[in-house]
Design brief:
The chain has about 190 residues and is mainly beta. The chain has one domain: Porin (Beta Barrel), CATH 2.40.160. It is about 10% helix and about 60% strand. Strands 1-2-3-5-6-7-8-9 form an 8-stranded antiparallel beta barrel. The protein is elongated, with a radius of gyration of 18 Å.
Length: about 190
């Protein structure tokens, strides 16, 4: 089993263990948003306990980044991301829902960049502080910010590719993490 898969299993089990007691009548929400490292993404979230939620997302930015190398034509770079996140809500009151508006979000994500000459893969763990703004009892916006720690980075040069000049090379192990999401509760 790859390191990435092992990390997701460990994080998922830890989140489930911390979220006891579980409630079978939890709510289910879908979301769409933008953020880092999750890019443009779609996700879902399940309520596990009174103020605990577990979510997952998949995101992409296919062909959105470009790189110029001298006189060569611009290169399109495809990117996708996926991950898991746990949310603990605290503080304040919402007029539309018993879920408290402030939250801590802890997550694990995988980001994959695919350029003409290379493939770069990153694993991040992040922690964020956020605020939910319920517009109705079923929908709202969330805004969060925090830090992401790069757990691993793997770069692979494609056959015949140029190894230098990566547009997505990251020097720092700690990066900003942020998100803006719209959510809609289905159940």
């Amino acid at each position: 089993m790859r390191t990435f898969s092992k990390a997701f299993v460990v994080i998922l089990l830890a989140i489930l263990a911390l979220a006891t007691p579980l409630k079978s009548q939890g709510s289910f929400a879908v979301s769409a948003g933008v953020g880092g490292p999750e890019i443009f993404h779609l996700g879902f979230r399940v309520k596990l306990a009174d103020q605990w939620q577990l979510g997952a997302f998949i995101g992409s930015a296919f062909g959105s980044a470009t790189e110029q190398r001298g006189d060569a034509p611009k290169e399109k770079i495809d990117a996708y991301a996926m991950g898991l996140a746990a949310f603990f809500h605290f503080g304040g009151q919402s007029a539309h829902t018993p879920l408290k508006p402030w939250y801590l979000r802890a997550g694990l994500s995988y980001v994959h960049f695919d350029g003409t000459d290379y493939i770069s893969k990153y694993n991040h763990a992040d922690i964020r502080l956020g605020r939910g703004f319920n517009l109705t009892p079923r929908s709202g916006l969330e805004l969060d910010a925090g830090l992401a720690l790069m757990l691993s980075h793997k770069h692979q040069t494609k056959p015949g590719g140029l190894p230098e000049g990566l547009p997505v090379e990251v020097e720092n192990k700690v990066l900003p993490a942020f998100g803006l999401r719209f959510f809609y509760k289905i159940l």
